[in-house]
Amino acid sequence: MVQVTVDKDLEDLVPGFVANRQRDIEKVEALLAKGDFDGIRVIGHSMKGSGGGYGFQFITEVGAGLERAANGRNADLIRSALSELREYLAQVEIVYR
Question: Structure pTM?
Fold first, then answer.
């Protein structure tokens, strides 16, 4: 398990935030299949901007990696980032304080 401490004020928002990252994985996979690197870049940029605000620094890092990989049109790095995000989301345990 990976424990993430989140501000109690965000407790109502975090489940939706995490569910949206699961959907982002599916979206990026579909975009990758179409070769839409710009669409992947946009999703990565959004993740980079929002992760830390919710207390999920790792999601910020993955988003930055997706953005860089999309800019470089590097499908292998994109797949690797998605794999890391999928594993992280499966293991994350949220603690509200």
Answer: 0.93
